[in-house]
Amino acid sequence: MRVNPDMTKYDYLLENNKNYMDYIALTTEDNRKITFEEMHDRIEKYAMMLYKKGIRKGDVIGVCALNTPESVYLLYALDIIGAIVVGFSPLDNKIKIKRDIELTRPKMIITVDMMYSNFKDYEKALNFSTILYSPFESSKDLKLKLGYKAMQMKNGNFKLDKDSNLHELLKDNTKIDIERAEYKKCELTDIMFTGGSTGVHKGVDLAGDGLNYVVDGMKSIFQAEPGMIHLGNIPVGHMVFGKYTMHFALCNNMELALTLKAGPDDFYDELVRTGATAAVGGPPHWVSLIEKQGDKFVPNSKLKPNSLTNLHYATSGGEAKKEITDNAINQAFRYCGSDANIGDGLGATETWATIMANNGKKNTPGTVGNANGNLKIKLVDPVTKKEVKKGEKGLLYVSGRAVMLGYHNNIEETNKVISYDEDGIRWCNMGDYLLETESGEYRYIGREKRNFVSGIENIYPEELEELIMTLPEVREVVVTPISDVIKQYIPSYHISLYDDNIDFNEFENKLTKLISDRLSDSWLPGYIEYTTEPLIRMSNTKVDVNYYKEKDDEEIKNGTLKNKEKVLTLKKN
């Protein structure tokens, strides 16, 4: 039975869970199991503790969390009170942390103790208090806990004040009445940060009921059932994708299998350990299941037969997936006894994560599937703003309750993407080019802000990268624009090769023919940079496009670009 999403995040969770309290809600790295009843009891206890600490509705509270039960309890407890939660990344450095604190001005920051060094120097100057907790707070491994505590003491990540220690605060069992936040439609509950593909760092103001609507709408795409196991590897504290995954799994009475080993290197082992039914990850996570043999991708030699028999849904997100690896990934699933097919999705911080998804089974391969059932979408011409026809590329506009309230304290940036049509419907320009297929599914083309003009043609770097990836020599590629007086811009290819022991003339001839035959001469490279190392990535695992743009700019400034790069002669018309 459908639960009305018009309520707080916690109330929506509770209403969905009320008939499944004896089911498993959370499992930990040491395989402890926590039922929904136990989880809700602890959330209520955390809410009372936070209320005693003076947190009230509307207070801005920063959270720097890892994927542990304590983090889950804290996030929902803050929602009970009605605090506005700011997600800080454990991967950010002190400079980024300071900038984000100055932007959001939290009253308090609750952080895993290992990250306290990023906050403690600013605590007095920026007027906030802190609560620390260990990611191994509830572990039963005493040796692990003592060793970890000694390490944090050595590194200065501790406070002697018991009022700043989560574990000590929870010992106070005094009962008090707390004022629970009343639901208010489209009310600010979360501030999440995004750099996206543009590299422009912004705070995004989000409403809690928007997340409920995303979860509700995704039921039309994924068949989530009570008792299924969802791998909890996406960070729940500072990424909307992680918060969405947590809320989706728990609101559908699934078991959320938490892991601190979130990287691609551990992905397969965690899928096996948890017996996951469903999992999401970036392309590097799924590519870790395969390896290169000659000119082909094959299942990774570390995989074991029938080791993933429980895995039925596998979704890629975060950045554009490379279709060339799909068949090998699906072969890896079959080898491991899984009936999953690799799916894909498109989402954004500005829409509480998922806008549309291909669940891998009922959707056409190579598409990002169908839109979330609670969102309106349209594809428009970037100049006329009129809707394009099926089969034509258009800018993605999204409308619905999940769309952000705006960029935090940044009306100028908000007005760049938010608009109203003649019927008064509020739309957000997502900055992505897509096309709708005849089947009503969507195919991803690329980011608007990555697009550039070469001659008279629009160049879509993601589309070009996808094509280049079909060459067996290429591990990864990123395309950046080089300023040119005549053509406005010409493409610069940064190519990661599996092996540099190749005939470069032969490779470049093959590359030229591929691009000319499938696209046009305007898409051909002016410069190519080769490496055998994987491309540089940001903390969210996306390829750091800005790193390569800045690299180009620096070499142009120094006059070293032509001297260092292999230059192809552009074919003449």
Give the key terms.
573 residues; 16 helices; 5-stranded mixed beta sheet; disordered C terminus; Luciferase, domain 3; Rossmann fold; GMP Synthetase, Chain A, domain 3; 7-stranded mixed beta sheet; alpha/beta
Structure commentary:
This protein is an alpha/beta fold and 573 residues long. Among the domains are: 175 residues, Rossmann fold (3-Layer(aba) Sandwich), CATH 3.40.50.980; 104 residues, Luciferase, domain 3, CATH 2.30.38; 114 residues, ANL, C-terminal domain (GMP Synthetase, Chain A, domain 3). The strands form seven sheets. The protein has a seven-stranded mixed beta sheet with strand order 6-5-3-4-7-8-20, sandwiched between helices. It has a five-stranded mixed beta sheet with strand order 11-14-15-16-17. Strands 18, 19, 21, 22 and 23 form a five-stranded antiparallel beta sheet that branches. The longest helix has 17 residues. The protein is globular.
Q: Compute the gyration radius: what is it?
A: 24 Å
By DSSP, the count of extended strands is 28
> Strand sequence of the main sheet, in spatial order?
6-5-3-4-7-8-20
Distance between the termini: 63 Å
- Which outline best applies? globular
CATH topology of the domain at 33-207: Rossmann fold
**What percent of residues adopt helix (DSSP H or I)?**
25-40%
User: Regarding quaternary structure, how should these chains be classified?
Assistant: single chain
**Structural class, from secondary structure content?**
alpha/beta
Mean pLDDT: 90
The tally of helices reads: 16
Percent of sequence in beta strands: 15-25%
What is the CATH architecture term of the domain at 33-207?
3-Layer(aba) Sandwich
Largest sheet: 7 strands, mixed
Q: State the low-pLDDT regions, or none.
A: 563-573
Determine and state the CATH class of the domain at 33-207.
Answer: Alpha Beta
